[in-house]
Write a structure and sequence with these properties.
The structure holds two protein chains of two kinds. Chain A has six helices and five strands. By secondary structure, chain A is α/β, with parallel strands linked by helices. In chain A, the strands form two sheets. A three-stranded parallel β-sheet of chain A has the order 1-3-5. In chain A, strands 2-4 form a two-stranded parallel sheet. In chain B, strands 4-5-6-8-7 form a five-stranded antiparallel β-sheet, with helices on both faces. By secondary structure, chain B is α/β, with parallel strands linked by helices. Classes of the chains: A alpha/beta, B alpha/beta. At the A-B interface, helix 3, helix 4, strand 5, helix 5 and helix 6 of A face helix 4, helix 5 and helix 7 of B.
Chain lengths: 115, 287
């Protein structure tokens, strides 16, 4: 499989992976690469801060259209801190729940309202 | 012209209630001139909340002037730059215990990062907190900022803080004047959700009202960190009040609704937790 490196710093134009809109740009880059059958290496080199809002759009929403195995076989990460690894794992687990069970959110509000 | 006294506004349910009362007293009095007096005490961090409410009143063509401000309140509000928005000159903050008042547009996330960096992370007189503690605090603040940015549809986001060296705490408040938790969640589920329960729901891990993208992690990251740090979170949104600290959760309802959301975070600066990640996943275990 061909490889393509996404340099997050360059793609979003800075060290801050904060905003959901910037995550969307990374998501579109990943999508293009997956559709080309390319393996993507996402580099967080020189990134200073990463929020879950950014990761939800950058990576989490891949689970809407792809299975876990397809995603993991196409994506790898480099230059990431342990803290970012924990966030990525958490975002991915949440995304799987969200797309696998669309009725779940309704049940959680019913639970809290005692209905 | 009418005069209104705000007396002893601290970061408590009662303090927020007094600010809500002010807003409801004047919100329909178009073209009125309001002279605001500040007496006894005003927590510096709540400038973020007062600033948002006064801007909403200004949108109703209410002219706002400050009358009598007790000396120690005026000093803090000049040092943190809040009164510069009302024609006062700023004082320099020799002991640097204030965290500057900031009003910014929701799109200015990168500007907000610079603010957090200069006011909090690189602040010379804040205690010698470990790098990881500073970064955890910054991360928590950012999750709140992006939450307001994504969900509230606010025109502006307001932030302000205060450092209390003897108590070893930082109080930091972020306020928006957009859609509150109750409005967003009730509209998403198409049912009337009580405001305090709406906030509680939003703080549970993986709960989110985003339509096509998963989410709901940011607020629970904050909650988990505050629990380890032994800090406090208070959320004021619509007529709901939600507080969480070492003693557990408190939920109450205000008389009158807060037009948006104010989130106050109290961080302990003498926290010696290592925050080492005992179970960080390997690179092959992220999916």
């Amino acid at each position: 499989m061909k490889e393509y490196r996404i340099d997050v710093f360059n793609v979003i134009g800075g060290a801050l992976c904060i905003e959901a809109d910037d995550g969307q740009i990374i998501y579109e880059n990943i999508l293009k690469a997956i559709n080309n059958g390319t393996k993507i290496i996402i580099s967080f080199k020189n990134i200073e801060m990463v929020t879950t809002a950014f990761l939800n759009t950058a990576i989490g929403q891949l689970y809407r259209d792809y299975r876990k195995e397809e995603i993991s076989s196409h994506i790898s990460f480099e230059d990431i801190t342990d803290d970012v690894k924990v966030k990525i794992k958490r975002v991915n687990q949440t995304a799987k729940l969200f797309y696998e069970d669309p009725g779940r959110m309704q049940r959680t509000i019913d639970d809290i309202l005692g209905e | 012209m009418t005069k209104y006294d705000l007396v002893n506004i601290d970061t408590t349910f009662e303090g927020y209630q007094k600010l809500i009362n002010l807003y409801h007293e004047y919100r329909y009095r178009n073209n009125e001139q309001l002279e605001l007096n500040l007496k006894t005490w005003f927590s510096g961090n709540l400038c973020a909340t007062l600033g948002g409410l006064l801007d909403l009143l200004k949108d109703e063509m209410i002219t706002i002037n400050f009358g009598n401000i007790e000396n120690r309140i005026e000093t803090i509000m000049r040092k943190n730059g809040f009164l510069s928005h009302y024609f006062y000159t700023a004082y320099s903050d020799k002991y640097q215990t204030t965290i500057r008042y900031l009003k910014l547009k929701p799109k200015d996330g990168k500007y907000f990062f610079n603010y957090i960096q200069s006011e909090l992370l690189n602040h010379p007189d804040l205690p010698k907190m470990s790098t990881i503690l500073k970064s955890k605090i910054a991360e928590s603040i950012f999750e709140i900022f992006t939450n307001a940015q994504i969900h509230s549809e606010t025109k502006s986001i307001y932030a302000c803080g205060q450092y209390f060296p003897k108590k070893h705490i930082i109080e930091f408040t972020i306020t928006d004047t957009g859609r509150g938790f109750k409005e967003i969640i009730s509209s998403f589920f198409n049912k009337d959700v009580r405001a305090d329960l709406a906030i509680k729901w939003a703080f549970e891990n993986t709960h989110s009202t985003k339509q096509h993208v998963s989410g709901g992690i940011g607020l629970s990251i904050l909650k988990e960190f505050i629990d380890l740090n032994k800090g406090i979170i208070q959320v004021v949104s619509n007529n709901g009040y939600y507080k969480i600290d070492q003693d557990g959760e408190v939920m109450k309802l205000f008389r009158g609704s807060f037009p948006g959301s104010a989130i106050n975070m109290q961080f302990r600066t003498d926290d010696v937790n290592s925050y080492s990640l005992a179970n960080e996943p390997g690179l092959d275990d992220l999916f």
